[in-house]
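Holo model, flavin-adenine dinucleotide. Inputs:
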Amino acid sequence: MPFPISDATPIAFPGPPPRETDVVVIGGGVIGVCTALFLARKGRRVVLLEKGRIAAEQSSRNWGWIRQQGRDPQELPIMVEANHLWTELAAQTNVDIGLVRSGVTYLAESETELQSFANWLPHATAQGVDTELLDRSALKARFPDLAKSGIHGALTTPSDMRAEPWVTVPALAGIAVREGAVIVEGCAARKLDLEGGRVTGVHSEAGRIACCDVVVAGGAWSSLFLRAHGVAIPQLSVRASAGATEPVALPHQGAAAAADFAFRMRADGGASLAAGGFHELFIGPDAVRALPKYAAQLRADPFGTRFYPAAPGGYPDAWTTRRQWQADEVSPFERMRVLNPKPNSAKLRKVAASVERLFPQVGPIRYRAMWAGMIDTLPDVVPVVDRVDAIPGLTIGTGMSGHGFGIGPGMGRVLADLVCGAAPGHDLGRFRLSRFSDGSRMDLGPAL
Ligand SMILES: Cc1cc2nc3c(=O)[nH]c(=O)nc-3n(C[C@H](O)[C@H](O)[C@H](O)COP(=O)(O)OP(=O)(O)OC[C@H]3O[C@@H](n4cnc5c(N)ncnc54)[C@H](O)[C@@H]3O)c2cc1C
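Output:
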């Protein structure tokens, strides 16, 4: 089965973009789409530019977990808000996005891991989230099919949800357009237009759009765009592979993860399957430059990432990707409409074998489709959600670090308020841009 969204997908939102608006949002993933939606709700004229297709990159390729469990404590209140917003948004679209409150469960394969789950629990309690720690016997009583030898217990959050990503994000784009946002697919933002250091517009491949505010929500491409304007963030992207299986009777209806695998049931009766904490990094100039900031991450998980000397041509951090271009030149963004990495099929077959071994009752697992996405990440595994002091009118919402799908509606609401100068309602201190330049230690926090 070919991946359902690609650069061959017919354009649903053609241009040309208007010549003037209040806000331009760069990037049509879940973050950009939700930001545009909430800006429209606040009465702003908003134009969202997407170089390829809505949700064609990370936002369609993810596992579809909408998870409060294990979040960074500063993300958690925004995620709790997002959970409420998901239910509202699902009712506001005329599409079935497959939203199911089926819970998220992490299985502990050692007492140390179970203790780390226990250490996170107070954060859930503080936010009124229904997370529970299950020891071996409680796990057996609650989820008998998950209680296997070698599993010491679990952390579970019944109110966590799932949805079908490649249906969901285009459906959210539909709501945004209905509520007044203008979306243009196949239209890259090349450069900001600045006057006296302030945002006055965006140069797109379809011409200049005058505006006072820009939100950069470009996923894996954000650092490349920002650096061309002198704004440095140590953002890198790692390849993560996932697969959809033929219909399968998994031992659990919710989403679950252990060291070797992560799965969730899909609306089509199959499962989405992936390797939990395994990623692949293609080394490029950004990776070399950012390496010292990733020291804490590498120490905490020295074997979670596999390294390759170079990315395929055209990737954001490929050695040959241009770092500077003019507004009237073709930019790297339009040279690669959709970042579509080749999946690591050998790894995915090992994942299936791990599930078959632990849960023999499942029988042989067959994949219908495999794909990969480039997860954009930051050294402390939390995003940048901030206004850029040095460039008035510029706001950043990026670096969701592998968990941006679930929190998307919450982050979109927050970003819309930031742009409008309204109180975002949450403490965004941990997501400030200046942490990368003010000597702050890269703090991984207690997220699981
Ligand atoms: C395999 C995998 C599994 C994951 N599982 C989960 C999960 O279960 N739960 C969860 O919460 N998160 C998960 N994630 C992470 C989640 O998918 C991302 O954090 C989230 O989708 C990021 O959204 P985004 O809008 O920031 O970026 P993206 O979805 O990558 O969107 C950015 C968009 O910006 C566009 N763009 C970039 N530059 C320009 C430009 N100059 N002009 C115009 N357009 C531009 C790109 O084409 C792209 O479409 C997973 C990710 C992967 C890859």
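The mean pLDDT is 96. The pocket of flavin-adenine dinucleotide is lined by residues 26-32, 49-52, 56-59, 61-65, 188-189, 217-221, 225, 240, 242, 333, 373, 375, 398, 400, 402-406 (CB under 6 Å).
Archived with the compound record.
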